Structures are given as structure tokens and as C-alpha cells.
Amino acid sequence: MTPLTQPQSLSDQAPVLPLENGDHLTRDEFERRYHAMPHQKKAELIEGVVYLPSPLRFEPHAEPHGNLMTWLGFYKAMTPGVRMGDNPTVRLDLDNEPQPDAVLLIDTLVGGQCQISKDGYLEGAPELVAEVAASTAAYDSYDKKVAYRRNGVQEYIIWQVLDQKLEWFSLQRGEYLSLPMDETGVIRSQVFPSLWLSVSGLLAGEMAQVLSIVQQGLATTEHQAFVASLAERQGS
């Protein structure tokens, strides 16, 4: 007697479709297809639409990205309780799963607003997100910015490399307002005390200047008080 075969489920019968630019997907379906494409290093779901970036060139993206990470990494190294990530997948909400170039966040153990899921992804809004927008200025400056604002990302940096322009937004009363430069050309974070940026230094790739300015911030009593408050939260 020929044994009866079990009917296959739809998931067994149908192959997982690849992600394509412009696909309109739920977040669950986006993740399912992304996991099935291990060769795909970056994909984002922004307002329910899939974005697949082009290969990254060195000068318009990779080198500026490295300089941005150097600046944030220096601050993170001197500020226990603060964490930094490079290109993490962030589950913002049901329609948005970006993969920002850099995030700086306060650890959940000391009061941060972003969680790490059981499967290792960020869930919720990091305190600070930074994007190097060499060729993606359109959705970094519009749809992605809207998603970050709506979900409570406290500060958002967009560095438009080709335009030699950097904007640093602060979430105030539900709106993103540009943080001003002082008379020396330095912008100061409102969320991370003493995170100072020499805008002209970063735009010019003068990292010695960038690190000198952030080091000045780290030497202030404001930063010492912030580190002490994080340590107190950790202890409690």
C-alpha cells in the first residue's frame, strides 16, 4: 500500500520572494524576506516601503561614516552607560525598520528608551541616530525623518556629504528643530551632555580638530555629572 503523503503547507510550497526596491510590505514580511537573503547587507523598511541601497563608494560614504563613528566612539568610550552601534537594525514600529549608519543610546539599565530584543535587535527609538546621506538624501531627509520624529528619536543628524551640509535636529514638543552652532562653529547635544561637534572639522575630515573639541566637552563638570548620574542609576 502506498503511504499517504502529508499535504504541504503554503510556506513549504512557495519560495520566499527576494526584497525589491519599492516593495510595500508589513514588517514581519520584510524581516522574513531579509532573513532569506544573507548576501544582502543592508535593507530598510521606511513607512512600509522597502529601500535597498546601492553599493557604497569610499569618499562619499565609507570614509565619512568612519569619521562619524570615530567621533561617537570617542564619546562612548569615556561615558559608561552609553552604547553605540554601527548599522543596527531598529524595529521602530510596524511600518518602519531602518538600519541607520550610527546610533548612540543610553543603556536600558540606566534609563534608556531603547530595548534589545531576545533575538538581538533594537526595539524602540535610540536617543540619537546619525545618517550619512551621500546618495539617499531624499528619504533620509523626508520619510525617514518623519518616522524617527514620530517614534521619539530625540536627536537626528543628517550629513549630506555631496552638499557639504550637516544638520542636527532636536525633538522639541513633537517637532524637529535644528540645533544651532555657537560662535566657534560647534554644535552641542541636548541629550548627551558634552557631546560637542566641530562641524567644519567633520566636513573637512579634520579628525584631530573633531576629537579635540569633543575632548574639551568631556573635560567639563557637566560630563562628570552625567557620568555620575548614570552610575547612580546603575547602582539603584
Written description of the protein model:
The chain is of the alpha+beta class and about 240 residues long. Helix content is about 35%, strand content about 20%. It has eight helices and 13 strands. Strands 3-5-8-9-10-11 form a six-stranded mixed sheet, sandwiched between helices. The protein has a three-stranded mixed sheet with strand order 4-7-6, with no helix packed on it. Strands 1-2 form a two-stranded antiparallel ribbon. The longest helix has 20 residues, at about 60-75. Mean pLDDT is about 90; it is low at about 1-10.
First-last Cα distance: 69 Å
Q: What fraction of residues sit in β-strands? A: 15-25%
Low-confidence stretches: 1-11
Looking across the biggest beta sheet, what order are the strands in?
A: 3-5-8-9-10-11
Give the overall pLDDT as a whole number: 91
Query: Which structural class matches the secondary elements?
Result: alpha+beta
